[in-house]
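Known limitations

Structure tokens in this collection are predictions and should be treated as such. Users comparing against experimental data should check residue numbering before alignment. To illustrate the layout, the record for Transcriptional regulator, AlpA family is reproduced below. The input appears on top and the generated tokens appear beneath it.
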Amino acid sequence: MARKPHAQRCRNCEEREMKSSRLPSSANDSTLIDPSLTLIRIGEVMSIVGLARPTIYKLMNEPESEFPKTVKLTNSSARGAPVAWVLSEVQAWARGRIEARDEVAA
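Generated tokens:
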């Protein structure tokens, strides 16, 4: 008896694949996404700013860093409760770091 390919055997493969993709393929059109209303999780933040999780949380506690604050995704006050960041704020912070570099170079 020939085995079915993994994708046919696994009921959750398609669901897992959808979860792993950040945005639907139609979202490649920038007019569909408003960065000021788009919430991103820590993995995307790390990818955008190029910093590790502990460094990001450290920067959040340093007012002079001006790192964006999180948005609570639930009413839970427990440590480890889900949070996200506003995409446009993270992008603006990264842009500010680039501009600061360019000012020093000038």
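For this record: Confidence is low (pLDDT under 50) at residues 13-21. The two ends are 70 Å apart (CA to CA). Please report discrepancies through the issue tracker.
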